UniProtKB/TrEMBL annotation:
Organism of origin: Pseudomonas veronii 1YdBTEX2
InterPro entries: HTH-type_LysR_regulators (IPR050950), LysR_HTH_N (IPR000847), LysR_subst-bd (IPR005119), WH-like_DNA-bd_sf (IPR036388), WH_DNA-bd_sf (IPR036390)
Entry's family note: Belongs to the LysR transcriptional regulatory family.
Protein name: LysR family transcriptional regulator
UniProt cross-references to Gene3D superfamilies, sorted A to Z: Periplasmic binding protein-like II, Winged helix-like DNA-binding domain superfamily/Winged helix DNA-binding domain
Superkingdom: Bacteria
């Protein structure tokens, strides 16, 4: 593909005017501006953005499914065409030069506009390829990700989805580092580089078997629940941090009989008859379960905010935006 850039001569007087692409379509004097023809294609631009996103040539090559030498050739071709150096490369890291940082927003706009246009054409959207990664805590993965994945796959069958089901801290780290495009988790101790947007609130409930003494109760206090054999999450869990903060005034008479890392494991142990567990409501089966039921927990009533987490200042690529849209459109079960 032959790409044509129109460049206005006065742009950045400290460097040759053709060093940076300049979109002059909206400039009132664009009719007199000179045109410079530069040879590179969309594959070269995609390689450039992949290196920026992944922070390494190896990661970028894996992401766009080409060899590392082939990726290096694309970057060299782009730098030669523009007559600039886009990356500073050392044995340990890859970073953008000042010119590369100025070039990046325009590359993102070009690629995103193209992707949006193609995804808006139904018979083309079904052939779009690529990868989208979402990180989420296991309880949310269990609750709504199967519905989201099914809907997304019907729309874009050739785009590969990767789901990182991990603890809240690991979800935050994956979003912050760029390993995941975005995440679904609960608010809590989030990094400054990550922003949170509320989707819904849910309460904590008591998970127990139908034959348990507390199963017939309309509600159970936390103190009463702790009098029975109970299972809890370990100190590395984001849920444990949230509960420790909310239950400072609740007296616990005996320790748990078992600790796990994930809420979904706790529910399996409850079903096996080991005891009760205090869990987020969406972690419970959504339909009538033959063995398990939930009882509202009170004194205090503890709520958890569940939402989208994204790296601050980052614009999601179109495929990830489509996945985010499907998450937003879910009719969340009332908690």
């Amino acid at each position: 593909m032959l790409t044509t850039w129109r460049i206005r001569a006065p742009v950045l007087t400290h460097m040759a005017p053709r060093h940076l692409p300049y979109d002059n379509a909206l400039h009132p004097d664009s009719h007199w501006l000179p045109t410079v023809i530069i040879n590179f294609d969309l594959n070269d631009l995609q390689a450039f953005r992949a290196v920026v996103d992944k922070g390494s040539f190896r990661g970028a090559a894996d992401a766009i499914r080409i060899s590392q030498p082939a990726l290096s050739r694309r970057i060299e071709k782009l730098e030669t065409a523009l007559d600039v150096k886009l990356f500073e490369r050392t044995t340990r890291r890859v970073s953008l030069t000042m010119v590369g940082r100025a070039f990046l927003p325009q590359v993102e706009r070009i690629l995103d506009d193209l992707d949006i246009a193609l995804m808006g054409i139904s018979n083309v959207a079904s052939t779009r390829m690529g990868d989208v990664t979402i990180a989420c805590v296991p309880s949310t993965a269990y609750y709504f990700m199967p519905h989201v994945i099914s809907a997304f796959h019907k729309l874009y069958p050739k785009i590969r989805l990767r789901v990182l089901d991990a603890s809240a801290g690991e979800v935050c780290n994956a979003v912050e580092s760029g390993e995941a495009d975005f995440g679904v988790s609960f608010s809590g101790s989030l990094a400054d580089e990550v922003e949170f947007e509320l989707l819904f609130q849910e309460r904590y409930v008591l998970a127990c078997r139908r034959d348990h003494p507390l199963a017939e109760r309309a509600s159970v206090s936390w103190a009463e629940a702790y009098e029975h054999d109970y299972i809890t999450v370990d100190k590395t869990s984001g849920n444990r941090f949230l509960l420790d903060q909310a239950l400072r005034g609740v007296r616990v008479k005996k320790p748990s009989i078992c600790e796990t890392h994930h809420v979904t494991t706790m529910i399996g142990l409850v079903e096996a008859g080991l005891g009760v567990a205090m869990v987020p409501s969406i972690a419970m089966p959504g339909t009538e379960h033959p063995i398990l039921l939930s009882v509202p927990l009170v004194e205090p009533q503890v709520m958890r905010n569940v939402g989208l987490i994204k790296r601050r200042g980052r614009t999601l690529p179109p495929a990830a935006l489509e996945l985010e849209r499907l998450v937003r459109e879910l009719p969340f079960r009332s908690a």
